[in-house]
UniProtKB/TrEMBL annotation:
Swiss-Prot/TrEMBL keywords: Signal
Organism ancestry: Eukaryota, Metazoa, Ecdysozoa, Arthropoda, Chelicerata
Region forming the signal peptide: 1-25
Protein name: Lipocalin
Amino acid sequence: MKSGIFSTIVCGILVVSVWPSGTQTRKVVPDIKKFLNPGEIVWVLVTSAERGPDCQLDIIDTIVAGKVYFRRLIGYKFTMSDFQQFLEGHLQSSRKFRKNISDVLNVGYRGAAPTSAEKLLYLSQQYNCGVFEVKGLPNGANYELRSKNPSTEGASNTHCFKAYNKTARGKGRRISVDPHCEDILKGNNDIVSSINMASGALG
């Protein structure tokens, strides 16, 4: 009888340690395939790069045979930019994960060799934001907080900002949050004019 009571108490302690007051969240495996979906838009909200664009987003066109085809739109406050990169990313697994988990995207221009590696370090439970380490850039490696929601008000209450600050040690500047960001990017053949800035979706 005593052993049964003891076992019950131990089980209760284990349950509480895993779900204290229902606030504990499970750790999500950073799989890029769960984060990127065709037709969706991903915004860079925070970057550790000291210099760079004031607005940046990726439009995911399609994902097929281990490759992600997307367009990267970049804008600057003082220059009306129609700069649009047509890119492809090769999904890859780092040594940390098995082959069925893709946490690295080797990115380059379509039909050309990859020039940078974008590694997903953290992914939220809802798969709507993540922290990336970007290597291969002229200014070295940078960290970026990317989100499907262009509003920092919604993203700032998530664990993504905490994960970013922990990874980048608080170093970063916010981009893509300027109220004129939509106008800055409209030079891209008015693609962004159809983006719902409240949700980040097309249409």
